[in-house]
Amino acid sequence: MPRFRVTIKRSAVINTVTIEKGMEVEIISQFPQNPIIYNQGKAVQEAFFRIYGIDLKSINVLNLSYLDVKQLK
Predict the structure, then answer these.
(1) What CA–CA distance (Å, rounded) separates 73 from 61?
(2) How far apart (Å, rounded) are the C-alpha atoms in residues 55 and 70?
(3) pLDDT digit string, tens, across residues 50-68
(4) CA-to-CA dists, residue 12 to 16, 27, 42, 68, angstroms
(5) Backbone angles phi, psi at 40, to 5 degrees
(6) pLDDT per residue over 6-31, tens digit each?
């Protein structure tokens, strides 16, 4: 099962929600595809909400312009 590290690329305040550069989560997936693109990023969204209490989808930052994805070995 591939493991991914998803990291925030840049800090921002959007609709009173603050995201900081360097916030990161690790995700284990059943599929080798980018977890932001696969299933509309649901695994990434859930991981950030579980760890930081931030809903990335509601503030429109669940995309590759704000997030960096690296597959870990």
Answers:
(1) 26
(2) 21
(3) 999 999 999 999 999 999 9
(4) 10, 23, 21, 15
(5) 60, 30
(6) 999 999 999 999 999 999 999 998 88
pTM of the model: 0.91
Q: What is the DSSP string of 7-28?
A: EE-S-EEETTEEE-TT-EEEEE
Instruction: Count Cβ atoms below 10 Å from residue 56 Cβ, excluding itself.
Output: 25
Contact assessment for residue 71 and residue 1, using Cβ atoms and an 8 Å cutoff: no
> Which of 13, 5, 26 has its CA nearest to residue 61?
13
What are the helix and strand counts (H, E) for the chain? 1, 5
Asked if 54 contacts 25 with a C-beta cutoff of 8 angstroms, the reply is: no
